[in-house]
Amino acid sequence: MNKKLLYSLLISGAIRYFISISKYSRSIENHVEISTPLNSFKRLKEGVFLYDNGIDPYDGDIFHESPFILIAANFLLKNFGEFISLILIIIDLLSAVFIYYGSKSISKRNYERQQLEVSTYAKGTEEIQFSKSDIDNIPFICAFAYLFNPYSILNCVGQTTTVWSNFLLSVVIYSMSKNMKFICLLALAFETQKNFYPFVLIVPIALAFSENDKSKNLKRIITVVTFASIFGLLNYIAFTYMGNWKFLDSTFGFIIHCRDLTPNIGLFWYFFTEMFDHFRELFLYTFQLNTTILYLFPLTFTFKESPEFLLTILLSLVTIFSSYPCIGAIAFYMSLIPLWKRCSPFMSHNFIVIATFIVTSILGPTVYHLWMYANSANANFYFGVTLVFCTSQIFLLTDLCFAYLKRKFCLTNGVTFDKTMKLSLE
Amino acid sequence: MEIKSILKILLILILSPLLCHSSEIELPSKYVERAAQGHTNNWAVLVDTSRFWFNYRHVANVLSIYRSVKRLGIPDSQIILMVAEDMACNPRNPRPATVFNNMNQQINVYGNDVEVDYRGYEVTVENFVRLLTGRNHNGTARSKKLLTDSGSNVLIYLTGHGGEGFLKFQDSEEITSQELADAIEQMWQKQRYHELFFMIDTCQAASMYEKFYSPNILAVASSLVGEDSLSHHVDPAIGVYIIDRYTYYALEFLEKVEPNSKKTMAEFLSVCPKRVCISTVGVRRDLYPKDPSSVPITNFFGSVRPIEMTNQVVNISMSSIPDEKESEIVEKIAKGVTYSDLKIKFPEQFPSNIFK
Amino acid sequence: MGILSNPSIGAHEKKTKYITIINKYSNLFCFLLYLIGFGWFCALSFPQFQSNTYFSENALLPGLVLSELKMDSVNLAKTYLNELEHERTSHKSNIPYPWMQAKMKQIGLKTYIHNFTLNYPFGGGKRFEGKNIYGILRGPRIGATESIVISVPYRPPNTAHTSITASVPLILAFADFARRQKYWSKDIIFLVTDQEQLGMQAFLEAYYGEDENNILDSGTLYGKAGSIVAAINMEIQDFDVDFNSLKIEGLNGQLPNLDLHNLVVKLSHKNGIPIGYKTKMSEHPRDDVIANFFSLLSMMWTQSSGVPNGNHGLFHKYGIEALTIEAVKRETSVKNNNVHHKIMALLKIIEGISRSLNNLLERFHQSFFFYVIVSADRFISIGDYMPSVGLMSASLLIKSFLLWLIANNKNEDDEQENENKEEEDKIVIVRKSKTTIDYIKIGTIILCSHIVGVGALLITTNKFIHDYLFSMNIPTQTGIFYSIIFIIAVSLLMPKFLRLNVIDAQYLNIVLLIELGTMLLSVSMLNFSLGFFLCVFITPFAILINIQENSRRNLLKFLIRSLIHLIIHPITVLYGIICLLSYIAFNEMNFNYIVDKSFTATIDAITFAVVDSLIYGNWLFDLTFLILLPCWIMLWILNFSKPIEKKNKDKSE
């Protein structure tokens, strides 16, 4: 393991630890930006307590985690209750390690792919080509971006179950890049069990696994079917363990129907608070389609030659538009963006996006405080801020997509053009 | 003594065929006249749509109108009273169990003879529209139904907070003028009224009757579109506004009306001029074929009371007394009847002493 | 999608044209924004920009109800006052609990005593104890779900504050009257607090079951009423009232709902007692712009410190609307003065307020929560004043954006010059940038300066350090002073270890400007006055201090710049303000004396700020050390940035 990474791990681990023992940890845990009904540690504890006392935690409206999280948390809280924050920190650091190695092999693969085509590239495009040193640089930046992102730090201190999701996702990415099919699909199935939305990632994964194959479509179908059967099997195991199917409605149903309208940083709650009941279903499904499969196919066809890029984009989309987003998930997809470092010369909104992130991340909690505790502001202030936050995320995303396409174009056509020429990718 | 007076009525009933030369049963000429006009019974729907202590005046409004129409003869069974809040029992009320409509506190309009049919959270747009159109749920109590027919003259009185084209119910929902107009059209199609008098006391009240398109409706509103209706005065002892201006002056007028009054609707429509009302009273008469000045006010505020005649003695009060014994007494009294006793009197609404 | 991200490739062409213009005028433009913002605020003192106060909440029905108070309540108040005066001769330093408890019980209130303890964070674990006393009047015809608080701070005879003995008799007389009424829909808590704000804080913490604060042990309440909707704090100096003064500024600059303010103003007027905001009723005329301006500033000054100016201020933290009515006693005696009349008026004011609050159906939510009072009947709402702060803090964000544009394009420009000859008619989209930015170093500087801030906060508030200082026999104040000197020394020495070249410094400046802009925006959301003053002070420096770009170093210029930096150090500023204030207050004193005194006053002020932050949760102190000081350190480092090495550049060319 390289030294820089080791130091980063140590320092960021220490930061996480010190914040989690400080007096702020409890208020961090209660922040709506960090804890949603889906990932809150408080609810997890409650669920475990209910389960321990022989009450089905899925009967009530408190607990919405997957049964596997319940089992794991039950075990951990019982045996290592004292060290739970330490365990979570270690898991978070492990995620960073997986991101590091995952992005390392992705960069390597990108470099190799480029080597195959490099002869077709225009001259003068060295600046936007992957260089050999990128194989070492990019993974570190990715891991660094995860380790020192305030969002992931707060998420870890808040002890949310998003730490687990991030871990599973990092395993997905690692195993995908290393072509470890079964582990990858298993991790994805677990993650889908927990958060539902990540099932869309099966598309880039199927693309990735079929890359060097002759019968591509067959291979893809096999991957999807395997995933579906693993997922089904997991649910069946959960069923045998829990004794009934209630958990399905309490997890997937809860996510799809957006039953809890507690304010969060997403776009659902405000809209559905105002919604007339008889339109609710319609808009609910429209929103969910938007989150999951509306962009899935267009994006797949556009980016099918780079499943890793597709994965980055899909994961960010799903995170932004999910019904209970939290900053932990945002931190995760942000850490994948440095993978496309070579696109950055084409990204024109970097500064605005970053500045908006900073401003809204500070203003959001301020306004929330005024609304909830000081009783003086109202929901519109908070929603306004979160809307700007989401918009800036979407800016980032579209900017990245366009930058990728522009880069691709420039690689073959060169980076210098006549002034008179008008070019557009529209 | 009260028994006596009841018996006197019975006597009248018994004697009336005799007075009519008992050859054949004939309807009183006046009744026939009215029946020819198609108006055989009177109903009233009185609605207060607003809650909360500071809306005391709306409850006082609706209860005052209730009191007036009852005094003028519409029986409780034909008045549907909807009151959204129980002001009398509000903990803020310094005069518990009472509602007054005047700062002198002369009349407690929430006396012990008030029958509220829809109360509190039952006062909803849905219930109101169901009531008007007769599409009640199965099992709705009879007192909660508007059992009108093609011969009914219906008075609808609404009070609460309104805006242009809507009236707020309960601080949570509102009925629009279009919905109301459609509900009334449905009443007409179902022959649920003969004539309808619509009276509304809210802000921008006139906007509520503008969409009406069914025939035989006469409508009056406390204010025109763009105007606010104002309250009349405060009772400093209770600490709230106690009645609205329009209703106050309408009541002032109604107080002078007797059941056999000759006053006309035209007079009623000119009540509360702008000088005292501050808002302009709006009237809509294009849907009403008659000339309001020829329509007696009792057509809407009073009641046609169909009288059924019988030759037998009916014991309506004391079941313990056998009928024969009663009839003996009656006959005894009947012998001493003089003509002066037959003068028609209006007894108390609820001669509660009988039931002691 | 064109709006989101311009997909056309040749977007660059026009950009460079503007860059030179931006480069030239960016400071001017940002400063202009600042001036417009400031001008906007000044314009608010014109009456055209102010609104008259009005009631938004229907349910209040202010002053409609006829008072039912009789003369016997007035007599009772006088009797209570006499009795209390007698008790005070034997209770020199505490509340006469037996008397007060007896009276409350006699009236028919459920009476309780609330004990609390302060474990003083400094001075080796000293403990102070206090006792509040309160009585609850239950709403007779409704479940106890909501309540109103009528509170009074009790000041024993040996207090340093103005005596407000008449308050307790007044609220007891009112309690006696209220007990006999049947229309209360809310419980009324009559609360007499001990130890000024400490008692109130303890009461509220105990009421809401907050026990995280181990400095103030808030004890247990044995009787509670419903959730508190509103509170009125009374400070009656004497029954012979000259005028009522309203105090509204609460903890961290929170204000009560404007409806409550209006209610009190209206009832006071109605009952014939003049009321003013901070002034006597002789209010300045509407059109007196200068007076308007100063009365604006005077409110904002009080608000900006975040320290409540009365017991009401602590309620705001819990979302309870509260204010203090201070009845100021008449200084000059008037013949034939009818004190009975005044007592009646005061009682009627309380009665009116209570009955209006009693009418409330929901918590206050209608009127304004963010406003600035110009006079008792005029105010400026958030929509009118926010643009001024918005413009000022936006100028920082805009400046940072402009700097970003300049910094990014400068590299390109330099390179373009070289290539121009061959590529006159070509656009080059991506070039290899030759200057690399040392992100790690910039990050380290940002991190280090914030760590200094966090360290400063830890040092000054850490209990172990204070215990250690105590065991070393160093007084708390001196201890805090030394730790702050230490911090200043560290911050001054930072540039010694961390220096940037001009290009990197530009990027640090961008980050700094974003941080300042964001901080100012959110501070002015929370506490407008503080945000405004910070904006007025910080923005010009942040905009106008540019990084020296020319390699020729002008020593004099450098020294002047360093001096300016030292002057705007938070501690220097604090000292300056205190000097100024004491100069205004004691202008007859010797200048040296004032300078000397202000020094100790500054140390005291810092100590109080620490205590405020620890006990009440005032965040001004935390803000200073967590954001302002690190920002200053970054500015300081920027001041020492190295000019870019010419050789290096030559080599690359």
TrEMBL record, chain A:
GO biological process: attachment of GPI anchor to protein; GPI anchor biosynthetic process
Keyword tRNA-binding in record: no
Topology with respect to the bilayer: Multi-pass membrane protein
Keywords, ordered alphabetically: Endoplasmic reticulum, GPI-anchor biosynthesis, Membrane, Transmembrane, Transmembrane helix
Keyword Ion transport: no
Pathway noted in the entry: Glycolipid biosynthesis; glycosylphosphatidylinositol-anchor biosynthesis
Transmembrane segments: 83-103, 221-239, 251-270, 282-303, 309-339, 351-371, 383-405
Cellular location(s): Endoplasmic reticulum membrane
GO cellular component annotations of the record: GPI-anchor transamidase complex
Superkingdom, natural source: Eukaryota
Family: Belongs to the PIGU family.
Protein name: Phosphatidylinositol glycan anchor biosynthesis class U protein
TrEMBL record, chain B:
This protein's record includes keyword Signal: yes
Organism of this sequence: Polypedilum vanderplanki
Superkingdom of origin organism: Eukaryota
A GO MF label: GPI-anchor transamidase activity
Cell division found in the keyword field: no
Pathway the protein contributes to: Glycolipid biosynthesis; glycosylphosphatidylinositol-anchor biosynthesis
GO term, biological process aspect, one: attachment of GPI anchor to protein
Active site: H161, C203 (nucleophile)
GO cellular component terms given for this protein: GPI-anchor transamidase complex
Protein name: GPI-anchor transamidase
Family statement drawn from the similarity comment of this UniProt entry: Belongs to the peptidase C13 family.
Signal peptide: 1-22
UniProtKB/TrEMBL annotation, chain C:
UniProt key word Phosphoprotein: no
Protein name: Glycosylphosphatidylinositol anchor attachment 1 protein
Keyword tags: Membrane, Transmembrane, Transmembrane helix
GO CC terms, sorted: GPI-anchor transamidase complex
TM spans (from-to): 25-46, 385-407, 439-459, 479-498, 510-543, 563-586, 623-641
GO biological process, one term: attachment of GPI anchor to protein
Lineage: Eukaryota, Metazoa, Ecdysozoa, Arthropoda, Hexapoda
